[in-house]
């Protein structure tokens, strides 16, 4: 069972939480395209977690981020 924090109504008053028992992820977006993109991002994140396992995370340095930009 999902337990929501006591401050939930104050923190996100415009959202009504619900529980949807299912075996597949429920992904939303403001449009079908955005929901599809969110689904792909979720799948890629799960793939990374599965592939990397328990390896330690090494975050990029500022110089590495600048080089990629």
Report the order of strands and helices. HHH
Low-confidence stretches: none
Mean pLDDT score: 81
Structural class: mainly alpha
* Number of helical segments with 4 or more residues: 3
Helical proportion, percent range: 40-55%
Gross morphology is: extended
What's the gyration radius in Å?
17 Å
Largest sheet: none
Per DSSP E runs of 2 or more residues, the count of β-strands stands at 0
Percentage of β-strand residues: under 5%
Question: How far is the N terminus from the C terminus?
Answer: 43 Å
How is this structure best described in words?
The chain is mostly helical and 69 residues long. It has a domain at 29-54. It is built from three helices and no strands. It has helices spanning 8-11, 32-52, 62-68. The model has no long low-confidence stretch (mean pLDDT 81).
Blueprint of the fold:
Elements: H1 8-11, H2 32-52, H3 62-68
Provide a compact summary of the structure.
This protein has 69 residues and is mostly helical. The protein contains 3 helices and no strands. The chain starts with 7 loop residues before the first helix and ends with a helix.
List its traits.
single chain; 69 residues; mainly alpha; 3 helices; 46% helix; Ribulose-5-phosphate 4-epimerase
């Amino acid at each position: 069972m999902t337990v929501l924090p006591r401050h939930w109504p104050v923190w996100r008053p415009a959202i009504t939480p619900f529980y949807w028992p299912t075996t597949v992820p429920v992904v939303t977006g403001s449009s079908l395209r955005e929901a599809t993109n969110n689904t792909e991002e979720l799948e890629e994140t799960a793939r990374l977690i599965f592939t990397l396992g328990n390896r330690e995370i090494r975050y990029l340095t500022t110089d590495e981020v600048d080089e990629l930009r």
